[in-house]
Amino acid sequence: LFEGHHMNYIECINVDFKSTRKESFYDLQLDVKGCKDVYASFDKYVEVERLEGDNKYHAEEHGLQDAKKGVLFIDFPPVLQLQLKRFEYDFMRDTMVKINDRYEFPLELDLDRDNGKYLSPEADRSVRNLYMLHSVLVHSGGVHGGHYYAFIRPTLSDQWYKFDDERVTKEDVKRALEEQYGGEEELPQTNPGYNNTPFKFTKYSNAYMLVYIRVSDKDKIICDVDEKDIAEHLRIRLKKEQEEKEDKRRYKAQAHLYTIIKV
């Protein structure tokens, strides 16, 4: 469900020599800093690096050569997990910082765009890499601490839910998407008549991880789960929890019939 593959390659410019290595991944770490959205991060991910000057590539019998280095995708998984690099090391301040910049992500993600520019030559082009957003994990706070909660649409319908510890509430798409882009927000003016400069503040709650599901696979991934699909030890535990809950409810309901007398 979660495993995809990419190809690291180094290709010489002046001689016929190419080195490739296939690797698997379970999630992709995407840059937030300097990228306005998910597509800009993918563009950066497959960006070609030039190896030249002091940084030439040693191409076996050809010796030191100018070369191109990069990554292309062989296949994407049915469930694509994207971790946004909101936390990074600041060399100037010698400390970890959180990147609260505005960063957009779409409801529908097309990774075949621009004639499949993210795909390697050996990728299967018959697979349509069109994805729907399933969930958004949010981090609220700074680099030294904070709170995590998630917006999920369990069946990929238009109805989103906010899962915040044990509290689950219905939310609209604007709250789940646009309000988690990060960046700055303007406070509404108290005296609209006056020509005041609007007060802006940085939003410290923003998307930290995104989960996308491939459209062609959604029916087999978003399937009904009945009791037999749940592991037996979990069924026993859930049943026990339900019985304990019922005992507590019964005790509460009958509490007014009893009193404690100390003699």
Automatic annotation (TrEMBL):
Keywords: Hydrolase, Protease
GO term, biological process aspect, one: regulation of protein stability
Keyword Hydrolase: yes
Single GO term (MF): cysteine-type deubiquitinase activity
Domain USP: 1-215
A cellular-component GO term for this protein: nucleus
Family: Belongs to the peptidase C19 family.
PANTHER family, per the entry: UBIQUITIN C-TERMINAL HYDROLASE 12, UBIQUITIN CARBOXYL-TERMINAL HYDROLASE
Protein name as annotated: Ubiquitin-specific protease 12
Organism: Genlisea aurea
